[in-house]
Amino acid sequence: MELNVHNIKGKKTGKKVKLDSSVFGVEPNNHAIYLDVKSYLANKRQGTHKTKQRSDIKGSTRKIKKQKGTGTARAGSIKNPLFRGGGRIFGPVPRDYAQKVNKKVKRLARKSALSIKAKEKSIFVIEDFQMEKPSTKDFTKILTALGLSGKKNLFVLEELNKNVYLSSRNLRNSSVVINSELNTYGISNASNLIISEGAIPQIESLLNR
Description:
Number of strands: 6
Helix content: 25-40%
Distance between the termini: 21 Å
CATH architecture of the largest domain: 3-Layer(aba) Sandwich
């Protein structure tokens, strides 16, 4: 598959980029995508939730009433979960939600996600560009010129460009990553991929190891 290379004004430069069919033209594996996305979302969970159980409650440990003869259930502590202010039964505790996915499965998932975007014609190639200073206004002009304003877009750059990143940070539907940060969730969650010309060979090299 060949794609035209556009400049930041949305015009075709006359250059074309040939996408490697082993990365952008594979038969999509939906289960691999599911596993990688599930792992990504699970790994983002902090797992720092915690409620006070019986042993964590501060209070007296004396027996609050006699064992027999009250006509009610026996109770040995004010920290009993059945009482107001007592500990919580089986409450959440800190835990690690991380899920492991094999490297080959991750690689297949990313290839599958990229192939789906290529089939949907949702990949745009833009020539490498620089921004002299952070400017959300200028970044929005680039999106408008490409006809992608108001859509959920993912920019993939060859290398870190702080000004481009800062320019996109205020826009809810646009994000900027470098090629090594590209993941299945980001690809699948975006409506369009805007890849810089220099990032294409690097993506293909990463996924063809």
